[in-house]
Design a protein that fits this description.
Elements (H helix, E strand, L loop, with lengths): L5 E5 L11 E4 L2 H6 L6 H5 L3 E3 L2 H10 L4 E3 L4 H12 L6 E6 L6 H6 L5 E11 L5 H8 L5 E4 L2 H14 L2 H4 L3 E4 L2 H10 L4 E3 L5 H5 L3
Parallel strand pairs: 2-3, 2-5, 3-4, 5-6, 7-8, 8-9
Antiparallel strand pairs: 1-6
Helix pairs in contact: 7-9
């Protein structure tokens, strides 16, 4: 059962004039947000630094020829970027979401790399479950739940409270992409919370 808990809205950003040393994206949504941008051809000539496999695939589909993936989380990506770009005279272009849990830009800037942050999408939390999801959780019809982000995990707990089924919604096992993602569920009282060995979907599915 698919029950989206984040509503993604693509923005129409104006990219500043000037040159960049590379592009960084921490979400597939960032890649999707610029797929029709008039300056896309200019962007795809640059190296793209991404957080994981799915974002790397989205970047290649856009036309980026040089894609480097950290294969981990934002801290891993920050270390990769600083190792590759330390001493760069031109800034890094960060295509970001409006709401960011980590602080990738600050981590990179601590190493002397300038970052130009352009917000290209926003993700709003749903206020209610879909009717099918609420019915399935109420009836105890779901064995497990996959959680890909901290914000969607927060939305899950909030939606369960709004529906008056928090206790039932926490009964299934909960597979989380990282310890950070798991926090709202643990704080809510979930007993069976499983954390992926690596922050990628394949590792998440291995938890079943």
């Amino acid at each position: 059962m698919i029950a989206p808990l984040l509503r993604v809205e693509m923005l129409a950003p104006e990219l500043p004039a000037g040159a960049w040393c590379a592009v960084v994206m921490t979400s597939v949504n960032a890649a999707r947000a610029v797929e029709r941008h008039p300056r896309l051809a200019e962007l795809t000539r640059l190296t793209a630094f991404v957080v994981g496999r799915r974002t790397a695939e989205a970047a290649r589909e856009l036309g980026f020829g040089d894609v480097t993936s950290a294969g981990g989380n934002e801290q891993d990506l920050a270390r990769l970027i600083t190792a590759r770009l330390r001493g760069s005279a031109t800034p890094l272009l960060y295509l970001a979401g409006e709401d960011r849990q980590g602080d990738l830009a600050a981590d990179v800037e601590m190493e002397g790399i300038r970052v130009s942050i352009i917000e290209v999408y926003r993700a709003s939390k749903a206020s209610r479950f879909t009717p099918a999801a609420e019915q399935a959780l109420t009836a105890g019809g779901l064995d497990g739940v996959l959680h890909y982000s901290g914000r969607s995990a927060e939305a899950y707990v909030d939606c369960a409270r709004a529906a008056g089924i928090l206790e039932r919604a926490l009964v299934p096992f909960h597979c989380c992409l990282s310890a950070k993602v798991a926090e709202p569920l643990l704080n809510g009282g979930a007993a069976d919370v499983r954390i992926a060995a690596r922050p990628e979907e394949a590792a998440l599915l291995e938890l079943f």
